């Protein structure tokens, strides 16, 4: 039996949370957003008979960005004592929040046993957010608590990457995990929906920028990376495209700093949960030990599972 810890997924309870981004009237304006606009629980995380989900990391999903502890309270109350795998949580934070308020929110979050880190989605606003008046103070506080910071930016944005490196190099106690492989340029078939605009995704220059930024970020010992979110670049991605990215990331970061992840339920835009993990195991060309590291052992260590 192959064990898996999925280090990047989201669960929804539309009756309790706000999830403004899931509403059709709000961005992102994906024509297929209805596919994921429903409740999701651990019972939806179905794998093949040869794979076992040993744990997962729940990444904040916009449950309540003003009171981010509400999402953690829901997760721990709803799922801790049920017959599901062990889980850790990444909470939402606002890096531009006034430091006293930020500290109050963080202190509330740290009362929950599952919380191991936080995320503020930077995306295309990374430079503006990271140069805001309170960002340094708030990042320092996260580092003092030896937390994980989930870094979600397109690393083809060289100015943002340079700023990230200068900020996080000094925060050695803060583990930084790059989300979705830094949004590598994946060229979709002609006419295919491109979800996140990263410029001309078929342009060789885009790939070179992504690869160069990957090399720069890999030099920081406290930076790790998750390979997931393929549907964010192109709905109909191929196993070959995924394999090319994963193998390049391994080459640059080394096998001990790379993780495979799902981004469930967004993966449902293209594949079922079971099919995605089977693709990872059967079609990426990883040997048994490589797969065990990328799908289980690295996530167990980095996200501090027992």
What does this structure look like?
34% of the residues lie in helices and 15% in strands. It contains nine helices and eight strands. It has helices spanning 69-79, 99-109, 126-130, 135-144, 158-168, 204-218, 239-253, 273-283, 288-302, and strands at residues 2-9, 51-59, 86-92, 115-119, 148-151, 175-178, 223-227, 258-260. The protein has an eight-stranded parallel sheet with strand order 1-2-3-4-5-6-7-8. Helix 6 packs parallel to helix 7.
Short description:
By secondary structure, the chain is of the alpha/beta class. It is 34% helix and 15% strand. It has nine helices and eight strands.
Supply the helix-strand structural class. alpha/beta
How many helical stretches? 9
Q: Report low-confidence residues grouped into runs of 5 or more.
A: 189-201
Determine the fraction of residues in helical runs and give it as a percent range.
25-40%
Strand arrangement, major sheet: 1-2-3-4-5-6-7-8
The average pLDDT score comes to 93
Compute the separation of the termini in Å: 20 Å
Largest sheet: 8 strands, parallel
Q: What are the secondary-structure elements, in order, as H or E? A: EEHEHEHHEHEHEHEHH
Shape: globular
Radius of gyration, in Å, reads 18 Å
Report the sheet-strand fraction.
5-15%
Can you count the beta strands?
8
Keywords:
306 residues; alpha/beta; 8-stranded parallel beta sheet; 8 strands; globular
Question: Which SSEs are present, and which pair or pack?
Answer:
Elements: E1 2-9, E2 51-59, H1 69-79, E3 86-92, H2 99-109, E4 115-119, H3 126-130, H4 135-144, E5 148-151, H5 158-168, E6 175-178, H6 204-218, E7 223-227, H7 239-253, E8 258-260, H8 273-283, H9 288-302
């Amino acid at each position: 039996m192959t064990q898996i810890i999925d280090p990047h997924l989201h669960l929804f309870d539309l009756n309790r949370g706000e999830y403004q981004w899931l509403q059709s009237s709000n961005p992102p304006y994906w024509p297929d957003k209805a596919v994921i606009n429903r409740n999701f629980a651990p019972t939806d995380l179905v794998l093949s008979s040869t794979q076992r989900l040993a744990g997962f990391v729940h990444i904040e999903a916009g449950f309540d960005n003003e009171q981010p502890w509400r999402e953690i309270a829901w997760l721990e109350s709803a799922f801790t004592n049920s017959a599901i795998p062990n889980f850790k949580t990444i909470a939402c934070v606002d890096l531009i929040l006034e430091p006293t308020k930020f500290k109050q929110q963080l202190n509330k979050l740290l009362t929950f046993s599952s919380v191991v880190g936080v995320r503020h989605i930077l995306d295309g606003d990374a430079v503006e957010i990271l140069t805001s008046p309170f960002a340094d103070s708030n990042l320092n506080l996260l580092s003092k608590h030896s937390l994980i910071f989930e870094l979600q930016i397109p690393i083809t944005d060289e100015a943002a990457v340079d700023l990230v490196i200068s900020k996080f190099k000094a925060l050695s106690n803060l583990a930084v995990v790059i989300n979705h492989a830094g949004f590598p340029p994946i060229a979709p078939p002609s006419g295919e929906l491109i979800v996140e605009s990263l410029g001309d995704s078929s342009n060789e220059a885009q790939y070179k920028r992504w690869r160069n930024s990957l090399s720069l970020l890999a030099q920081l010992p406290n930076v790790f990376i998750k390979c997931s979110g393929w549907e964010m670049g192109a709905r109909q991605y191929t196993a070959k495209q995924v394999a090319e990215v994963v193998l390049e990331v391994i080459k640059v970061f080394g096998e001990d700093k790379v993780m495979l992840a799902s981004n469930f339920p967004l993966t449902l835009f293209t594949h079922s949960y079971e099919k995605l993990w089977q693709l990872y195991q059967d079609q990426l060309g990883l040997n048994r030990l490589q797969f065990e590291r990328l799908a289980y052992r690295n996530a167990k260590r980095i996200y501090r599972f027992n």
